[in-house]
Design a protein that fits this description.
By secondary structure, this protein is an alpha/beta fold. The chain has one domain: 2-enoyl-CoA Hydratase, Chain A, domain 1, CATH 3.90.226.10. Helices cover 50% and strands 16% of the residues. Its EC number is 5.3.3.8.
């Protein structure tokens, strides 16, 4: 499942165990519960010191995608899993703090989406690949378009199902930094999170900027997005 630990200003969400961290209903519920705890802590101190979230995983996998084996070949159950993942994306895109994914192993399909829902991504160089390889429901396609901005990279990920090592993913702008191995990736992710938290963002402002930056992806996962007119009124009220 997952654990949540607070290290100073940084919350560390860890997918535990040496398995594939497949996203079935139990793991999805566990992650959402951890994110709800992070949100509650942030809301309890809205004007307090800044915070940030790191998501990391134990073992060879960051996440090997949806737990399709449990779906038993049922399209209805698979659709349920696809729909169940969407709130995780919404939780991360609306979280009032910077988020960092430490991709310490393979991240496939929904596992890659989980990483892409974070603001920053670091990946180990010695092992692990990123790839898709599942049909793209509308919200997934919109997330990919928002977070993979190079046209040829989006084509290769979505249409070719290309498996990307860390250096290739860095060149395509999908990950922000490449680290030697899993321990270094986790450590650098926490270090980056500490630097981001030290900026002491107002959480509500940070979340609103993220939503404004990725409005299409946010709408796709059910986050309310202000119109340009509403944004202008709110901006003027802050002056």
């Amino acid at each position: 499942m997952c654990t949540l630990e607070q290290r100073g200003r940084v919350f560390v969400l860890t997918l535990t165990g040496d398995g594939e961290h497949r996203l079935g209903h139990p793991l999805i519920a566990s992650i959402r519960s951890a994110l709800a705890s992070v949100l509650a802590a942030a809301q309890a101190q809205p004007q307090g010191p800044g915070a940030a979230l790191v998501t990391v995983a134990e073992g060879r996998f960051f996440s090997n995608g949806l737990d399709v084996g449990r779906a038993g070949g049922s399209r209805a159950r698979l659709r349920e899993l696809v729909d169940a993942f969407r709130p995780i994306a919404a939780d991360l895109l609306a979280l009032p703090m910077p988020t960092v994914a430490a991709v310490t192993g393979h991240a496939s399909a929904a596992g890659l989406l989980l990483a892409l829902c974070h603001d920053y991504r670091l990946m180990r160089a010695d092992r692990g690949v990123l790839y898709m390889g599942l049909p793209l429901p509308p919200y997934v396609a919109r997330l990919l378009r928002a977070k993979i901005t190079q046209a040829h990279a989006l084509r290769d990920v979505a249409l070719r199902g290309r498996k990307l090592r860390a250096p290739e993913a860095r060149e395509m702008g999908i990950v922000d930094a490449v680290c030697a191995g899993a321990p270094e990736t986790a450590a650098e992710a926490v270090k980056l999170a500490e630097q981001l938290a030290a900026r002491e963002w107002d959480g509500a402002v940070y979340a609103s900027i993220r939503v404004s930056t990725f409005p299409d992806a946010c709408r796709a996962v059910g986050i309310a997005v202000e119109s340009d007119e509403e944004k202008s009124r709110h901006f003027a009220s802050r002056l």
